[in-house]
Amino acid sequence: MPRSISELVAENFSRNPRYYDRAAKAQKLAASKFADVLAGVYEGIQRPERVLEVGCGTGFLTRRLFELFPEARFTVTDISPAMLEFCRLGTEGARNASGIDAEFALDDITRTELAGGFDLVVSSFVFQWAGEIGELLPTLRGLSLSGGVLGFATLGEGTFRSVRDFFTGLGVEFPMPHMLSEGELELALAGTVELARWRGEFVEEYSTMLDFLRHIKRVGAVNASGERVSVKGLRRVLSESERFGGVVVAEYDVKMVMCGV
Description:
Elements: H1 5-14, H2 17-23, H3 25-41, E1 50-54, H4 60-68, E2 73-78, H5 81-90, H6 92-98, E3 101-106, E4 118-124, H7 127-130, H8 133-142, E5 144-155, H9 161-169, H10 182-189, E6 193-206, H11 209-218, H12 231-244, E7 248-260
Helix pairs in contact: 3-4
């Protein structure tokens, strides 16, 4: 029986959490910026009492959330058992030192069984792997208390544009999931009260195309549909990239939104 997208995502991100924690630089930078934006939203107002983080990964954002809201009760989730355990163990010292109240739960947001009742729900770099924003936002709102805050960061359509253009120029489709356009974001946010928005770009560079492709596979950032580049297509891409030489640029088009619930 074919595996579901959720199963493939969990498998992809369970392969090497240690490598992810060390090498996922753009994800770490995005988590830091996310925390800064969130801190601005809560400046001068009551801090959240119950916080839900959807898709904790190895804990880039989790650690910052613990620093921002040490008095809150946290529920930290991920679809990958390996990622969740890495985050739990990696934050144990900080939790013990600060007396953080945190529960770690394996959860698939597309079919969550969480009870809800959170006054802050956050998610960073999850939507592009988990499904359409129009389907996920109502789920996250349903887990939120009225008057709470919902914040998310996701990848936009400009992500990996240089690599994508290189593949396309050779007649080879670059196998990445759908990335959010500005129009799709505006449609999904229609009727919400925005508290803050940020858009920016983080850039990574690789010596060769092969180095880049190996990196995104090792961090789990591969197409969960199961589609892959053909052997012939991959050989052509690698051959042409070697012929032209030069640094491979990988852009991360990051969109962040904080809104009221």
